[in-house]
Write a structure and sequence with these properties.
The chain contains five helices and 16 strands. By secondary structure, it is an alpha+beta fold. α2 crosses α4. The C terminus is likely disordered.
């Protein structure tokens, strides 16, 4: 009996050891950041610091410290007591303010500090309307991310994706976190292959609304769109030229030796004998993400 109990005890201890999980990596070594609510941010709900905190924590590299109410609220103009913030276990500190302007807009100022090295890392002032709150918060998050990691942030990224609701298809555009979604096109026929222009101001996509695949370019500036490829056969998989002046659909299979270069305005250049659009001339990264506007890769989903 004693031997049996010893065996059972050993087995239980072994089983418990097998269930022990140790988590290591970036999630266990997140940078502690003190994100102080911006002075006056209640004028722009839900509060710009709330969006910034969500951005940074979502990256998995930062941990926002829980702070008690601070009176008076520190701003970008406040003299920083580094020892005090170090005692709060902060490696970095972000403070700022939101001030209304006579024209109805707001001015947001912020400043980032390295608490460990006891030095400022810079700051910026933005003027914005109420509808630009999230975009401005994402830009500040990008600034913080780059200063603390040395790599550019992606929080200002916009994504394009297709949602299917019943028999209705919607081409939607939203922030990287899914917030602020807007429908650019709705159709009862499939929409596929949305691709950003390099400047982030246009989308090329394939629509079957005419009972066949046709490539369109949709302007996000004025909401207008143009047909750029309506050849016989299959028109699909558009890709932008690196300069953004034209979008290239692959040539129809019926004419594999000739390719036309549709321009962004919808006009078609003369066919080029023996030419095919090169996949390396406009790589997927260049086509789907804008260097200037930080637009992003394409995602598709169904509901």
């Amino acid at each position: 009996m004693i031997r049996l109990l010893a065996v059972l005890l050993f087995w239980a201890c072994t089983a418990q050891a097998q269930l022990s999980i140790e988590i290591t990596g970036a999630g266990a070594q997140r940078i502690p950041v003190a994100l102080v609510p911006f002075a006056g941010e209640n004028a722009l709900p839900p509060g710009i610091s709330t969006i910034i905190r969500a951005d940074l924590e979502r990256s998995g590299l930062f941990r926002g410290l829980e702070l008690p109410p601070i009176v008076p609220e520190p701003t970008e103009a406040t003299n920083i007591n580094y020892a005090e913030w170090r005692s709060r276990l902060a490696d970095a500190l972000l403070v700022g303010s939101v001030q209304p302007r006579p024209d109805g807009r707001f001015e947001v100022r912020f400043r980032l500090y390295d608490v460990v090295k006891q030095q400022p890392l810079g700051g910026v002032a933005y003027t914005l309307g109420r509808e630009q709150l999230r975009a401005t918060a994402h830009r500040i998050s990008d600034f913080v991310y780059e200063k603390l990691t040395g790599e550019k942030g992606v929080f200002s990224t916009r994504i394009a994706y297709v949602v299917k609701r019943g028999n209705r298809y919607e081409l939607q555009i939203s922030d990287y976190d899914g917030a602020g979604a807007e429908t650019a096109l709705a159709s009862f026929e499939p929409i596929i292959s949305p691709v950003w222009s390099p400047d982030g101001k246009r989308l090329a996509y394939v629509s079957f609304e005419n009972k066949k695949p046709v490539v369109y370019v949709h302007s996000l500036v004025d909401g207008k769109r143009r047909v750029i490829a309506n050849f016989k056969g299959s028109n699909s998989a558009p890709a932008w030229s690196p300069d953004g002046c034209g979008a290239w659909p692959p040539p129809p299979r019926s004419t594999p030796s000739r390719a036309s270069r549709p321009t962004a305005s919808g006009s078609i250049s003369p066919p080029i004998a023996g030419a095919r659009p090169s996949s390396t001339a406009c790589p997927p990264q260049g086509a789907s993400r804008s260097a200037s506007a930080s637009r992003a890769a394409i995602m598709c989903r169904r509901e």
